[in-house]
Write a structure and sequence with these properties.
The chain has about 180 residues and is an alpha+beta fold. It folds into two domains: about 55 residues; about 120 residues, no CATH class. The chain contains six helices and eight strands; from the N terminus they run E-E-H-E-H-H-E-E-E-H-H-E-E-H. It has a four-stranded antiparallel sheet, covered by helices on one side. A four-stranded antiparallel sheet has the order 3-6-4-5. A hairpin with a 2-residue loop joins strand 1 and strand 2. It is elongated. The chain starts with a strand and ends with a helix.
Length: about 180
């Protein structure tokens, strides 16, 4: 069985491969946003569209529209999916009527934003920062769903996983080898 990357560097061998022990980022990390899923198989935060309808934050389940209360009290964005051989997630529509649609919503109460950011008022700039956090959370979830999480291992047995980029994992393996060589 081959690895994604197997190289010798400064006299040590390292590998980079898929992380079979990857952790669900919605379970293992503190996330700012909650994802309210529209799909049974991918309900990572145990929050659903009917939950939002019940709270009066969306108008209905079949064609959900945000209520004034939702947009006033939360920072919220639709999450879209594209499914064709893998799953892509985005805060923007993919525009394909056949393989894409609404995955759900990602939202955070503005009260939590004020607490996290230490502010009295959620400004447009802070909202933009929150949306960037949402994008990162969606990117991590997409990588997890598609198995695109990587681990490195060095010949001395040291290993570390959870990387979303195989080349970042490779750089970390090389950094460890550099440290090992400089300590000898």
């Amino acid at each position: 069985m081959g690895y994604l990357i197997e190289e010798t560097y400064n006299g040590h061998t390292y590998i980079v491969d898929y992380d079979d022990c990857r952790m669900n980022p919605r379970d293992e990390y503190e996330n700012l946003g909650t994802i309210y899923a529209n799909r049974r198989n991918f309900n990572f935060d145990n929050a659903t569209i009917p939950d939002l309808v019940e709270q009066g934050l969306l108008t209905n389940e079949s064609h959900p529209k945000a209520t004034r209360k939702f947009t006033r009290d939360y920072i919220c964005r639709l999450v879209y999916f594209y499914e064709h051989g893998g799953i892509a997630l985005s805060l923007h529509s993919f525009g394909c009527p056949f393989d894409s649609g609404v995955f759900g919503w990602i939202a955070v109460p503005k009260s939590k934003v004020r607490q996290e950011y230490g502010c009295k008022r959620v400004t447009r700039k802070i909202e933009e920062q929150v949306v960037e956090v949402f994008k990162g959370e969606i990117e991590e979830l997409q990588a997890y769903i598609n198995g695109e999480v990587y681990v490195w291992c060095v010949d001395n047995g040291d290993a570390c996983g959870g990387y979303l980029d195989p080349y970042e994992a490779e750089d970390e393996a090389k950094a460890l080898i550099d440290a090992m060589v400089s300590n000898n």
